[in-house]
Amino acid sequence: MQTVTLNNGVEMPILGFGVYQIPPEQTEQAVADALAAGYRSLDTAAAYGNEEAVGRAIRSSGIPREDLFVTTKLWISDAGEDKAKPAFDTSLRKLGLDYLDLYLIHQPYGDVYGSWRALERLHGEGLVRAIGVSNFYPDRLVDLIDHNEVTPAVNQIETHPFFQRTADQDLMRERGVQIESWGPFAEGRNNLFTDPVLSKIAAAHGKSVAQVVLRWLVQRGVVVIPKSVRAERMAENSDIFGFQLTDDQMAAVATLDTGASLFFDHRDPAMVSRLGNVTLGS
Ligand SMILES: NC(=O)c1ccc[n+]([C@@H]2O[C@H](COP(=O)([O-])OP(=O)(O)OC[C@H]3O[C@@H](n4cnc5c(N)ncnc54)[C@H](OP(=O)(O)O)[C@@H]3O)[C@@H](O)[C@H]2O)c1
Known about the structure:
single chain, alpha/beta, TIM Barrel, eight-stranded parallel β-sheet, two-stranded antiparallel sheet, 11 helices, 10 strands, globular, binds NADP nicotinamide-adenine-dinucleotide phosphate
């Protein structure tokens, strides 16, 4: 499995499996199928409500812990120096693990600085191999880096053909932060799977649009964590290492960028307030 090297030397698979919006009762089977298909990196979050099911699938797979790369995320209602550690312990317990590979601050809201100090401590204690953030725009990322000890290893952000984040990626590269894409297919929005530019490239390689999109991201050095509940798509989405887009094809995909989110703007005050008030069930 191809990996990227994070800023603290930890190797992270460039391809993983995301479980957002998979209902808890379907998650164990989906993760079992993903592991059987060869995925070794799993991305969940306290807010997804399916950490326990991910943990069950890990245990029943029999795959050695050190062969897996497990990410989960701290939700806003658990932000702060005092709350982040118990929230981490809860995630670890639900996953049935004794350490995490990557722990992310899920959203750039609430007491992010307190959370980060707690994460730095967890990292220092060896309970998590790498720490990072998600949904941080460059201004907030730079501020966090400049006023703390540990630079986030990863920033997981919306990245797909319609919102390509190339300038953000350049800044992250300068600052030693690995970009990780969420929503690589934009969850199918904008008719991504039938887009003419992507379809033409796919036909030229005898591949699917999904494979072209993931290949395009991986070729840019972006970590991807596509989600599917269908075993045949899991296999398809992992078969992206045997072909390469040409410079012309990379340039053609570049024309699809709209420079804006297809979901919501993390800097919209109404959204900041709405998300900031979402609390987690037990
Ligand atoms: N940090 C954050 O705030 C954040 C936000 C969103 C997502 N994420 C993470 O990123 C992961 C991926 O993003 P996402 O789940 O939002 O969306 P996505 O991976 O862009 O898209 C998933 C959708 O594409 C479909 N699909 C998957 N493979 C396909 C294929 N080969 N052909 C056609 N359709 C296909 C899936 O349907 P089926 O399942 O029916 O196949 C599903 O509807 C998440 O699971 C989560 O781990 C993080």
